[in-house]
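To close the chapter, one final illustration. This time we ask the reader to focus less on the individual chains and more on the assembly as a whole: which components sit near each other, and how the overall shape emerges from the parts.
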Amino acid sequence: MPRHVAIIMDGNGRWAKQRNLPRTAGHREGVKSVRAVVEESARRGVEILTLFAFSSENWRRPRTEVNILMELFISALRNEVRRLHENKVRLRVIGERAAFPERLQHRIAEAEALTADNTGLHLQVAANYGGRWDITQAARRLIAEVQAGLLDPESIDERVFASHLSFPDLPEPDLFIRTGGEQRLSNFVLWQSAYAELYFSEVLWPDFDEAAYGQALEDYARRQRRFGRTGDQIEAPTLVGARARG
Ligand code: FPP
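The assembled structure is written out below.
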């Protein structure tokens, strides 16, 4: 079972178009899939689920669609937070939230505070998030620390850099899922997904149910993760280790 699953929830617009509905009907339907995947993650013992709800680039969509997405986030927070809390889910939002309407920022802060000490599934919603934004804000913070004399530039290695990214306290994604048939990373968690297993599903997000998610998890279970090592080392670590030691 992956500890951390990251998902690009794609295909809402096409789901709606196929039914001659406005694109926003697809987003509304997509909330049901969010619920299903959150519940299935908790049931199967996934520890962290990171969902890409709104990218740094999504502001370029028509104003009405952006407004309806904002309303949808607000109402989802209003309607779901209590249930998430009862199920011990810890909710966190990653991304540049200052750009959101105040009402939404307020709800996010409330939901995070309410669920902060929960010990169940960690649900991270990426909103106004971009992988490049994350790397850039880490660089900006590192430079500020150097300028303040708090950090020696020579000490900046991958570990120090990563500790300035959006979720330094959590393990990196093991499984990166994109629904909706496209095979791109679209500026989602870039640095943190360096070793993630990629899984692309043809299923449009509103149709991505427990069974479709289960298929992704089962596919992951069949993968061999090598992190730069050879297949032999992974299959017989002690034997190869013993040989290496002489
Ligand atoms: C991508 O589909 C989807 C989005 C940009 C929004 C995702 C939002 C939700 C699923 C709503 C609820 C989320 C939470 C966390 C409560 P698309 O519009 O790009 O689809 P298309 O590629 O078919 O046009």
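Residues 63-86 form the longest helix (24 residues). The CA atoms of residues 146 and 152 lie 6 Å apart. With these observations in hand, you are ready for the problems at the end of the chapter.
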